[in-house]
Amino acid sequence: MKGKKIMKKMFLTLVAVMSMTMAFAEGENTVATNTVAAYDMTVNYSKLAEALGLSMDQLESVEDVHKTFCIEMMNAANAPKDERKNMVDKAIEKNLKYMHYILNNSQYSKYLLLLNTTMNNRGLNK
């Protein structure tokens, strides 16, 4: 009987330790997934074209520039934390430089507003 009690205690202790480990690991994965999701900058290009009043030529150029921006942001999301801010800043600066060339002043102002709002909502402007 005494051996069964010891085995039972050991088994319950093992179950408790495993449960705590699994809960901790799940929390880590959730945080990592949420971090990467915040850097996903994909957009509906037809909605963006409508909001900015883009011509077909502008839309094509904006899509190309924005796809590059999305790749750079995902690279930043997967980079070490100490390099991430610098990578995001460079990606934004490059994106805005190209967008300013493609868009007229009115469209560019709206684009700045949309991008800034998106960055704030995702917690990337700190």
From TrEMBL:
Q: Which domain of life is it from?
A: Bacteria
Q: Where is the signal peptide?
A: 1-25
Q: What is the lineage of its organism?
A: Bacteria, Pseudomonadati, Bacteroidota, Bacteroidia, Bacteroidales
Protein name in UniProt: DUF4168 domain-containing protein
Q: Which organism is it from?
A: Segatella oris F0302
Keywords from the UniProt entry: Signal
Keyword Signal appears in the UniProt entry: yes
